[in-house]
Amino acid sequence: MGAMSLTELGSKLAGLMFIWGTIQQFFPYTLRKRIKSFWQKFENYFYPYVQITIDEFSNGKSNDIYTQVNSYLGTKSINKDAKYLKAEKSKNSKSFAVSLDEGEEIIDQFLGAKLSWRSHIETFNENSSGRNNSRPIEKKSYTITFNKRYKEMVIEKYLKHVMEEGKAIEFKNRKQKIYTNNCSEDWYWYGKGMWRDINFEHPATFDTLAMDPKKKEEIVSDLVAFSKGKDYYSKVGKAWKRGYLLYGPPGTGKSTMIAAIANFLNYDIYDLELTSVKDNSGLKKLLMETTSKSIIVIEDIDCSIDLTGKRKKKKKKNEETTNEDEEEDSESSKEKVSENKETGKLTLSGLLNFIDGIWSACGQERIIIFTTNHKDKLDPALIRRGRMDMHIEMSYCKYEAFKVLAKNYLDIETHPLFQQIQSLFEEVNISPCDVAENLMLKNASGGPEICLNNLIQALEKAKEKTNKDKEDEEKTSLNSKSIKKVSTKLVGRLKKLWK
User: Fold this and answer.
1) Beta partners for 100?
2) How far apart are alpha carbons 124 and 105 in whole angstroms?
């Protein structure tokens, strides 16, 4: 009975189409227009829906919208009541991706609209080669169906929302990379680019970072504000980037801090070796090949290349100059001319332009990090606010940082020996690296108490060395005072004899 009803309905619709064709031929334009308007209302009443198809490939190329929709619907399908799903994993992804299987449908809600997504896979054989055993080809697509009154909202807002969410999911699930610049620019011309990369799999996080909790919280808050600051940076007219200077003695965790920042933001790392850069032009090319959402690192910048020689000479000649700001940022035309004469060299001016010149805005959401053991050796113009926005001192290990390391290495939060260790930390300077080495279990039979005792011995040795250094310093000071007194008396006697 149902089948007969559908047949009758089909016959009636065919009849209406025939009538409409006849009307178009014999009726005047004004009447046809009114009848057409009536027909559209009639059609919308029975089927007031619009359907948009998104194919996997468009004009022979991969369709970015399809991949982002695929990622978006993968997360939605887990939360919805979809029953038929597929799981896939690519070599560039950290985890497997879930997507809708063929014919599966899920319902999404957006700004009051109800939207139906359905997956389609069409399989056919490619017979252009004339072979019967040709491999089948799959044509994948998604269709989205919604009420016609939401058409403008879907096209202008919803699809943009889906693409942004899908892109964020892809970024979160991708494998991080760490890049290093090639020593020879010949790689660039052979199509291999100026950077080489491997997967970045460092386990460091802010939870495992040995640092004062208050300082750690301050850094995390700054990173969160930066990652959410797209609109703010655009509003104030600044490039969306931020600079961090990590300074402190060796072994205080500067490299670990960089890894923790990268893992927190899920950014790639570009480890820039300045000694491999031939000139300012090469530095600019490297910058152009970096991506957004990345960290550009220059470690031990004070040891990389000599960028302060000209500044020191200039300061000696201008000792009477009182304007420190002009001296710090002395990027005058005379200095630029003198630097440009040295062709084939990387200059301080080139590095400053790399950090915050016009070319530094060729990518968004980037962090630049310098590390150094000797902050005082760096040119003031290199680390001023606006270039290195946040100066982070990586200091010696203190008791609070020790407790983090004890939790990481020994899985303990308290122990009777902690009180003795706390008192020793108040008197001794020791790096987190040295503390961690003493807390590591050297064999299977070792336990937390053995490691803590090893640390106590190391702290006591460091204390003895510190006390001895103080005694030697005091002796040296006393000797210098004695020599000064003797020399003063001797000079006085010589003056008397001279008279």
Assistant:
1) 85
2) 23
Q: What are the backbone angles phi and psi of residue 178, rounded to the nearest 5°?
A: -120, 130
Under 8 Å CB-to-CB from 12, ≥6 apart: which residues? none
Helices and strands (H, E) in the chain, number of each type: 20, 15
Question: 81 — phi, psi (to 5°)?
Answer: -95, 25
Q: What gap in Å lies between CA 49 and CA 145, rounded to an integer?
A: 7
List, in order of start, the domains of the chain with CATH numbers. 38-125+135-173 (no CATH), 180-307+345-393 (3.40.50.300), 399-491 (no CATH)
pLDDT tens-digit profile of 337-374? 444 444 558 888 888 888 887 777 777 899 999 999 99
For the chain, the straight-line distance linking the first and the last C-alpha, in angstroms and rounded, comes to 140
DSSP-based three-state secondary structure for 212: coil
Residue with tokens 């096209």: 155
CA atoms within 13 A of residue 294's CA, in its CB half-sphere: 23
Flag the least confident range among 250-259, 327-336, 350-359, 403-412.
327-336
Q: By C-alpha distance, which of 170, 167, 162, 178 is closest to 93?
A: 170
Judging by beta carbons within 10 Å of its beta carbon (0-12, 13-18, 19+), is residue 46 exposed, middle or buried?
exposed
Could you tell me the sign of the dihedral formed by the alpha carbons of 301, 302, 305, 311, in that order? positive
Surface-to-core class of residue 178, CB atoms within 10 Å of its CB (0-12 exposed, 13-18 middle, 19+ buried): buried
Greatest alpha-carbon pair distance for the chain in Å reads 140
The rounded distance, in Å, linking the Cα atoms of 297 and 300 is 10
Structure tokens at 263: 């893992």
- Using an 8 Å Cβ cutoff, are 102 and 85 in contact? no
Cα 139 → chain centroid: 35
